[in-house]
């Protein structure tokens, strides 16, 4: 099957210029995970709660009454008597939640990976703590995209910054080390951790290629399936 999370990730780069400083891009990828869980149809209870708007995606950056960042995508029980609203093109409604049942955090390493790796690791580690700030036992999902292109262009306004100039390394030169550190320091903290390998050059014609041998597709699909299995396990009273 086609996974909406993977399709949305691709659309960040494919045919358009990737905007590095737009924090809403990670959100837009994370919002797709509950859609994929619904489409898998592995938990009738999950699907019925989504259809009844008892379970929704959070619409705010923080949980009501809790001083905690909500992550790129948090899914949980709608606050009693709160309104839920539909978003065109999505099955899962939006609303206010008090506790997190599934929390997703997305990071994209397109270039300058080692320069920012410590911040990325700290952000992911901190988010694990934030997911649990309101109590409960949320399922945590981490998604990290790692570019493996042989060159890359980033932009600051109208100024272009090309890898290979002034000591700026190409993505492929840093990808393996960045992934090694993330897998060692972050991946074990999450219930499910998805690594998306890809190649994007961020210059016309703005091509995007999935990782070698379709690994991005496999990782994304397996992650969604295992997350749904965790949902079923908890709903059956064993979690």
Q: What would you say this structure looks like, in words?
A:
With 239 residues, the protein is an alpha/beta fold. The protein has one domain. 36% of the residues lie in helices and 20% in strands. It is built from 7 helices and 9 strands. The chain has helices at 4-11, 24-30, 32-40, 44-51, 113-131, 171-185, 215-235; strands at 55-58, 73-77, 94-95, 102-109, 139-147, 153-156, 159-162, 192-200, 208-210. It has a 7-stranded mixed β-sheet. Strand 6 (153-156) and strand 7 form a beta hairpin. Helix 3 packs across helix 7 and helix 5 (113-131) packs parallel to helix 6. The radius of gyration is 18 Å and the shape is globular. Mean pLDDT is 86; it is low at 62-69 and 213-218.
Secondary structure layout:
Layout: H1 4-11, H2 24-30, H3 32-40, H4 44-51, E1 55-58, E2 73-77, E3 94-95, E4 102-109, H5 113-131, E5 139-147, E6 153-156, E7 159-162, H6 171-185, E8 192-200, E9 208-210, H7 215-235
Parallel strand pairs: 1-3, 4-5, 5-8
Antiparallel strand pairs: 1-2, 2-4, 6-7, 8-9
Helix pairs in contact: 3-7, 5-6
Q: Order of strands side by side in the largest beta sheet?
A: 3-1-2-4-5-8-9
Gyration radius over CA: 18 Å
Distance between the termini: 28 Å
Uncertain segments are 62-69, 213-218
* Mean pLDDT level: 86
Major sheet: size, sense and barrel closure?
7 strands, mixed
**By helix and strand content, what is the structural category?**
alpha/beta
Based on CA inertia axes, which overall geometry fits? Answer: globular
Order of helices and strands: HHHHEEEEHEEEHEEH
Total DSSP E strands? 9
Q: What is the count of helical runs? A: 7
Percentage of helical residues? Answer: 25-40%
Number of domains: 1
């Amino acid at each position: 099957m086609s996974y909406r999370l993977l399709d949305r990730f691709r659309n960040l780069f494919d045919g358009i210029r990737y905007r590095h400083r737009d924090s809403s891009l990670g959100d837009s990828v994370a919002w797709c995970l509950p859609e994929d869980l619904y489409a898998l149809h592995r938990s009738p209870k999950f699907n019925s709660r989504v259809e009844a708007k008892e379970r929704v995606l959070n619409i705010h950056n923080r949980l009501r009454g809790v001083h905690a960042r909500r992550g790129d995508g948090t899914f949980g029980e709608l606050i009693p008597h709160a309104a839920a609203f539909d978003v065109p093109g999505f099955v899962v409604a939006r609303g206010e939640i008090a506790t997190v049942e599934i929390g997703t955090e997305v990071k994209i390493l397109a270039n300058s990976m080692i320069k920012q790796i410590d911040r990325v690791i700290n952000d992911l580690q901190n988010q694990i703590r934030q997911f649990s700030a309101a109590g409960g036992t949320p399922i945590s999902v981490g998604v990290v995209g790692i570019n493996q292109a042989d060159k890359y262009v980033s932009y600051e306004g109208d100024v272009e910054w090309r890898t290979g100039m002034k000591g700026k390394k190409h993505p492929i030169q840093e990808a393996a080390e960045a992934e090694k550190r993330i897998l060692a320091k972050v991946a074990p903290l999450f219930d499910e951790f998805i690594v998306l390998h890809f190649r994007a050059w961020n210059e016309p014609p703005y091509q995007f290629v999935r990782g070698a041998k379709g690994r991005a597709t496999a990782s994304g699909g397996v992650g969604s399936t295992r997350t749904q299995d965790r949902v079923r396990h908890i709903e059956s009273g064993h979690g």
